[in-house]
Write a structure and sequence with these properties.
By secondary structure, the chain is of the alpha/beta class. It has two domains: 153 residues, HUPs (Rossmann fold, 3-Layer(aba) Sandwich), CATH 3.40.50.620; 187 residues, Hypothetical protein af1432. It contains 19 helices and six strands. Helix 1 links the parallel strand 1 and strand 2.
């Protein structure tokens, strides 16, 4: 009998998954199709999205596509990481002499030989792949077939990044699962709810704009897009606090801030960067150290900024909601040369402070001198 198997994190399932499965069922005409969401993919960190919700969304998106779908919780029952060769062995035991068809995208096809125990897959399954436009076919040295046509260049990580960035679910997600995402406040929707309740409307819009630009720059400078948009949307989480509240918050939670006493006396609003990083970690569960550093450094910078920190520093001052005349120039420069944009952004921040006749924090001065010396 023909057994089609489609596995993945499906976090969340998107229209590319739906199109791929529809075409595979049409071409292969399987007797049974196993949909197998990963419990913990060997290639990724364990998903924070509960398995039951990912399975629920799969049922909503795929149900009705065939009478012979099996929504298989095999990986949940196993626990831990499951490799594809183990899934193949499981199906070989479940069915008598099955002809197994393993459905993958072309990006997976080119990397299958690097998977664990790939010969088990090659000896016992026919790999079925869907092509995307621009794919240069590199004939694989194992039994495989290509589905006709081309499939949309979509990814679950892009869907998640869009939701984190905008607070809305994109049209690339099947309509059947949209309400499930909203109802369970997945992929940063709970963060947006909190920000709307704690920030002024224009500050919330600014946060969205910074996340959008950070995401665009991340594609250029090889930074994970989800990481960039999370940093962007959370960078001003502490902006809802007044100066005295920021001071109390830092003292209460023992947040370490360079030149803390000077900042408290001269310009306590600068503390919002460090409070935002604290909120990102303790309120919203962000553990990535580079993200937390980028948030804490987005106003004053530091002498050892990561690429993510530079992106956020520049995006904060040049996001599309910024209306001053140089915002477009910095934004356009950032799309071409991040280091030059960083110098320009640091310059503008210092000039804004001077023009406002406010205190210059030594951190900002140190950053400027460091960038100038570095460029000599």
């Amino acid at each position: 009998m023909k057994v089609l198997v489609f596995g993945g994190s499906f976090d969340p399932v998107h229209k590319g998954h739906v199109a791929l499965l529809k075409q595979a069922i049409k071409q292969i005409a399987p007797d049974v199709t196993h949909i197998v969401p990963a419990y913990h993919s060997p290639f990724k960190a364990k998903s924070p999205t509960p398995f039951r919700l990912r399975m629920q969304m799969l049922k909503q998106a795929f149900s009705g596509m065939s009478k012979h779908l099996v929504f298989d919780d095999y990986e949940l029952r196993r626990g831990g990481k499951t490799y594809t060769y183990q899934l193949i062995n499981y199906l070989l035991k479940r069915y008598k002499n099955p002809q197994i068809y393993l459905l993958v995208g072309t990006d997976c096809l080119n990397d299958l030989h690097n998977w664990k125990n790939p010969q088990v897959i090659f000896d016992n399954a026919i790999v079925v792949a869907g092509k995307r436009k621009g794919y240069n076919e590199n004939p694989a040295r194992f039994n495989h077939i290509f589905l006709p046509g081309f499939f949309p260049k979509l990814s679950s990580s892009r869907v998640r990044a869009h939701i984190w960035m905008s607070g809305s679910v994109p049209a690339t997600v099947p309509a059947q699962i949209i309400q499930t995402i909203y109802k369970n406040k997945l992929y940063g929707l709970s963060v947006h709810e909190w920000l709307k309740a704690h920030l002024k409307p224009n500050r919330y819009i600014h946060s969205q704009s910074v996340a959008e630009l950070a995401g665009a720059l991340s594609d250029i400078y090889d930074v994970n897009v989800e990481t960039a948009v999370r940093a962007g949307i959370l960078h001003d989480a502490g902006k809802g606090f007044s100066g005295p509240e920021l001071v109390r918050f830092c003292r209460t939670h023992k947040i370490r801030v360079p030149f803390f006493e000077d900042i408290c006396r001269q310009e306590p609003s600068l503390l919002h960067s460090y409070v935002s990083a604290w909120l990102a970690k303790h309120q919203f569960g962000i553990k990535d150290v580079q993200t937390l550093h980028a948030i804490s450094e987005h106003t004053l910078g530091s002498l050892h900024m990561s690429t993510l920190s530079k992106i956020l520093f520049v995006a904060d001052i040049s996001s599309k909601d910024r209306k001053y005349k140089d915002a477009f120039l910095i934004r356009n420069l950032a799309l071409q040369d991040l280091e030059k944009a960083l110098i320009y952004a640091a310059n503008r921040k210092l000039l804004f402070t001077i023009d406002s006749q406010k205190w210059l924090c030594p951190l900002g001065i140190d950053l400027w001198n460091h960038l100038i010396k570095k460029g000599e």
